[in-house]
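Quick one, probably user error.
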């Protein structure tokens, strides 16, 4: 299968946020503050949707912020709702390693919020992220959490069909545990240094948030939580 030729189903964005923004974005903002990036840091949101997260980060004082999405409706909505950032949103395919020429080619921080579970080849996606990251650059990646207790509860409550719904056009096609997503990050040159759950109670989290770094030695102030 050629992933570049697979049919794309547009997400049909009509509001700039999804329900996941409520419990994920505050944690992402907290992580960004902990990273103590320079105000001049270049930040990219891959799969920016309606642009809300990039707008939040811009309002934190970071001006070199950019976002892309394959969804034309998402990018158009982002441009409309956040006109000060109109020129910072682009339509782009995550499988294409060459970024648009009119935006920076290397970033201090890349954010991937609830994107990787929609992709046929998450490995290709993460390899591209590695290309776009500067040496010592950070990745904040979020994806729905799947663990032993949560999977048992889904089965016991007969929620399998709704949770793993195969009828959702453009929906989730990859389902990660902490172990599998960390393993994939390591195999694509990004070392996980922090793990957090988001939404609901521990080990029944809605999503998980990982911070990774493209680097050779550990940053002692930001070690991965086990």
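Nope, works fine. Designed sequence:
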């Amino acid at each position: 299968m050629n992933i570049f030729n697979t049919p794309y189903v547009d997400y049909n964005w009509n509001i700039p946020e999804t329900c996941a923004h409520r419990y994920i974005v505050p944690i992402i903002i907290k992580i960004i503050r902990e990273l103590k990036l320079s105000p001049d840091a270049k930040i990219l949101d891959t799969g920016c949707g309606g642009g809300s997260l990039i707008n939040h980060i811009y309002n934190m004082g970071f001006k070199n912020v950019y976002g892309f999405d394959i969804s034309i409706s998402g990018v158009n909505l982002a441009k409309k709702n956040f006109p000060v950032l109109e020129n910072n949103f682009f339509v782009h395919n995550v499988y294409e390693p060459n970024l648009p020429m009119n935006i920076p080619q290397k970033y201090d921080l890349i954010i991937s919020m609830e994107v990787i579970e929609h992709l046929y080849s998450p490995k290709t996606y993460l390899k591209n992220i590695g290309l776009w990251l500067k040496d010592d650059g950070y990745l904040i990646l979020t994806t729905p959490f799947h663990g032993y207790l949560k999977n048992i509860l889904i089965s016991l409550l007969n929620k399998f069909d709704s949770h793993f719904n195969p009828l959702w056009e453009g929906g989730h096609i990859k389902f990660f545990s902490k172990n599998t997503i960390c393993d994939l990050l390591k195999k694509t040159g990004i070392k996980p240094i922090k793990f957090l759950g988001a939404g609901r109670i521990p080990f029944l989290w809605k999503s998980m948030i990982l911070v990774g770094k493209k680097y050779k030695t550990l940053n002692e102030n930001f070690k991965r939580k086990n």
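Confidence is low (pLDDT under 50) at residues 218-226.
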